[in-house]
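Appendix B. Raw example, untouched.
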Amino acid sequence: MVELIKEHGIEYEIVTTVMGVSACVNKISAGGDVCIPKTIKGVLVSSINEKAAFGNVKITSIRMAASVQKIEEHAFAYCHMLKNVYIDNDVNNCTFIMEQEAFLNCNSLEVISSTRKIELMGHGHFSGCNHLIAIPTITGNIAPKAFFNAKKLERIQVADNTQIYAQSFLQSSVNQIVILNGTIKHVAKKAWSDLSNITILAKKITNELQDLAYNGIQVVQLDANTKNISY
């Protein structure tokens, strides 16, 4: 059974099956500062549906409760006035999933703030976000055009074993990658237009990072006590 509920310009979808009850954000027509609550009618809100706010030019910021675990593809694409995104911290520190082109061409977006790690599924997540300056730590792979034309973002932080695919950072300003744990398993030759401008800072210099150094990327070892590098 599916029930649709609308509150404060947000439409929620509550689905009841033999497995239980779940809730998601189906459509966002509200503007200004938008807050996604932890629950709706007592049911945890766990995701934001595909194209939920697609083309909404009224949203300026959005805060998501810790219960939200996933943003589906194109959820906030073309939200041209969206400037700040806040993802509340999860006590279990669960990874937050962003599907492809979730923030495509959000050309006012500056900051995505959270202590949770984000996993990028698909491609083009922040493509065209040419004012983006800060994002949370990324876990997993960085797919093609994930940061295409992100002209103000200069540094990202990754965790675990990351692979960077071709065209991930084309026409972006990202020139530093920080690794506080794990390593980078592979960097495609065409991830950037010029690998010689890229610096990787890591606590541990693994064999994989040494191989990247041989290919022209600068690899610098961090102090073992480093916990975080701010933007």
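End of appendix B.
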